[in-house]
Protein 1
Amino acid sequence: MEGSLGGGLLSGSDGPQALGETTQAWEELLHRLQETLDLLSPQELRTFRSLLAKLDEEPRVTPLKLELEGGSIAGLARLLAKHYPPDTAARVLVRVLQQLPRTDLLPRWQGFLAYGPVIPRKALKRSYNCVDGDSDCYDLRGRRNAFLMCVKKNRPGAHRDVHLMKQWLDHCQFEYRSCIDPDKKELLEQLTSFRDGLNEIKDEISCCLVTLMSHGEKGYLKIKDDERVSLEEIFEMFNNKNCPALQEKPKIFIIQACRGERRDSGVETDDEPMELDDIPERKRLPTFSDYFIIYPTQADHVALRHPRTGSVMIEAMTEIFEKYGNKWHIADFFTKVNNKVVHTEFFLRDEPIKVSLVMESTLTRFVYF
């Protein structure tokens, strides 16, 4: 059981039509555009181009123009700089960054929008140096499929969890199937159907994510009529034997359920409070590999869910993603989520209670959404 708790420069096809200070300003704009775009991941750049093509900012950038001129970071920056007046180019960039979302990059442009060009503040480099084709990263250019199960009955706040998870999946460009308040037979049938569907599109799929939100106990989900479903049985459905479509592809499980009845009241410390911030031989694989499983609490402990704002873990995921976007490897992302959860005070029936997320991973590459 869960515990409830302005005027611009004229531009042409070859860049600005003015000289001197105007050219210098255009070059500065171009530099800043490229510097910002360089902070985006390959997946974020693909999404950036897609959003730019749909943006209702005149003159619109056509998909053909994007394809011909915006294939590289330098090309995309130059396209923005010459297609729009400087103030419009900055506004367009900000609008697209807000939709990614990469709101952490917006402060770099506030001064430009308000007062014209300013010296940009130094940007923190991303925590990885991953490019398309990098063997250290999973290739997520294919389809991303997700399964979302939630028991809403007798779980106040669960509706909020569903809303937040769907929002997060949309941002990360997942196609997803929902399964709400199923019994054991329905859940296993839907998971089997989802898994079989992945095997049918083996060459198209790049990853899968399964979110399971319900009551629970150690090793089990508790769903309709208190039926128990083994998590190990669910994990086995997607292993390399039963789901060859996902061999060497990330299989991510987000489990929002209790793992027992124990409660951690925490301990007092003397520390200062922290701020939140084609091959001749077939390759063999382990039966279980490329899994990433996240639990909302330690084994044998309760998970926390607020009747109004929803589950603690799901809410923290949303807040961290809204603030930082998808700039981190998934393990780093959930480490940041855990930092927020661990250093937040919670109370259950007026009793202080502490929780910490638990991650289990057999990933062999980095995962960037």
Note: The two ends are 31 Å apart (CA to CA).
Protein 2
Amino acid sequence: MGRLYVFGHNGFGQLRPDRSDNFLVHPVELEATEPDDGGDAVVTMVTASWSSAAIFAANLTFAGKTIIMTQGFLNAESHQFRKFETAAVRSSVWTADSLVVVREGGECVQVDPCTGRQLGRWNGPDGAKFTDVVCGESTILALTDTGDVTMLGDVQSINPTPLPVHVGENVKAVCCGKEHSLALTVSGRVFSWGNGSRGQLGHGTTEACNTPQVIEALEGVTMVTIAAGGWHSVSVSACGDLYVWGWNEAGQLGLPTSKHKTGPSDGCTTCTDKEPISDMAQQGDNVAEVLVQATPTIVDLPTGQEVSKVSCGSRHTAALTKEGQLLTWGWGAYGQLGSGQTERCEVPCTVEFFKQRRVTDVWCGPWNIFVQVDK
């Protein structure tokens, strides 16, 4: 059934409502949600905002049902916990004060995170069914089963009728950073749009782009998954290579911002909390310092590792390898790297705690991480 571990920022009780720690620097187990009838359930998804989290578990006793456990800042109070059951859910995202979920039947609804009560609903364009929903700092995007991207509105104002976002190809995945969006097409191409002030669009500049544009630097390489952090972007190729671009001020790209960084590590001995010397690429000890990477580049991983999934927090990144190991890097002030430290790490490091376990999934919140492992 798997075990769920959490670490990072817990100031609102979003990781463990029963603990008063502001942050958890070591992975701590969070018992998976179980049905009230005592049946079995398996965690299928986690979505987190800066102050709350929602854990979704499939009810194995009654097919077609999902148990949702919400925790953290709810109803204007911290360290809260709620649990309710709803129709099966396939995707979800937090908005300002509610959850938006896509149900297995393709319906996209806004629900109260304390009760599960439906607050709003969207109809798919031309009868299409929704398959995914994501949210940036302001914009809510949804994907349909016809491969179209639609804009549901912003976090304060919901569009009753979704507005089309024209990518020009069938899309199979979409994600949002704070101010930018990425789309992965069926053919493995990556498009980006939004604010590009930190190079997060991957077009080689820091200019904004109002409409989806293909990332030319990735042309010819088939991508299988994408992820967006606050101001950085990541994609994984069919060969398991990890491509990164955007802001790197805390090492969230896995590229050095300090002179002594040399390469990936099987542990987190290369962590540091020093501030970067300047905002320009410099050369020191044969290692170039990078704060903004406006064009996608491959990141070196520990020897022999290939990535199967990647997830991004605001300024940190986590990758799941094909061998079931967890790599983390970037900003670590709240312990969100799982290394037992609060320093940042500028290169991908294997999390020691999970070396003797097989990780099966990972989800990043803005300042924390949720990890599922085999029992």
Note: The radius of gyration is 20 Å.
Protein 3
Amino acid sequence: MGWAVAMAAVVVALFAAVAGVSGEVVDEFGSGASFIFGDSLVDAGNNNYIPSLSKANMTPNGIDFAASGGMPTGRFTNGRTIADIIGEMLGQADYSPPFLAPNTTGGALLNGVNYASGGAGILNGTGRIFVNRIGMDLQVDYFNITRKQLDALLGRDRAKKYLRKKAIFSVTVGSNDFLNNYLMPVLSAGTRVAESPDGFINDLIIHLRDQLTRLYTLDARKFVVVNVGPLGCIPYQKTINRVGEDECVKLPNQLAVQYNGRLRELLIELNDNLPGARFCLANVYDLVMELITNYQTYGFETASMACCGNGGSYDGLVPCGPTSSMCDARDKHVFWDPYHPSEAANVLLAKYIVDGDSKYISPMNLRKLFSL
């Protein structure tokens, strides 16, 4: 009799566990999920699994990433990316794992998945200098694979409800289309001669519209799209153009502003034309400019120097790696390396995107989007 009771308890426990996988996330929805698309600003390690020159799986990257005990994970910063921090702030149970990681299957999908790739762009040709990277078109293809896995895991109707109600789709892309395409003469001389800034930006918008619409057809409904930051203010651009400490390079910033204006128009258009979708614009350009301009107000000591890097006035030529010089006060630098913000900067950016007002996130902040 005791054996029968014990077996019944095991059966009940197993049933509850299975129900927890499907019922909790779909009906009660657990803590929600983040599906992350983009470039090295939010890559969580996908490039570890491809033969690419754009990698961050070496020290001292990740030195402040508590979840790995300070070991590199493939994140291009000293700690958490902005996507990691946003997930935490919204109560996500765990970080969205890289799509290419072998353990990103089954129940792990229910925290969301990270498809971002260092060197990636909106255009497939962007980032050729890195040999391999996962561009936005392929990232959406990969989400289509996840979409089918979620159907198998939850059932078609429940998977659709889960994605539409409790998943946020974040898109952080566009910087490489300028830095490692249009502004890189070695790779893009033909493009720049043949195409005006207007024409190139128009191509970006056409491709991004298609990519976002494809995600919508796969049941994505809650989007946050990050605009391009002030590229002319990163240590790499400041170093190669030899500008002063309080100056930024004009052309990259002009291109970013021009693109961002078109992006804002695109998201308004998609909000009007895709029923049930909510596209929020994260105005990272103005947010980073505020941080750079008034860095001391936010507790930083420099907004020009890379903490980890080498070469030139701002240590902005050589990416962060084992032989790089590294600053002592990592939390006092806006930039971790020649290209990417430090974790301390990412924390500030995330706070404004999750809980800020319409100056930096519109038409609503992420906490409100998440609650819909």
Note: Residues 1-29 have pLDDT under 50 and may be disordered.
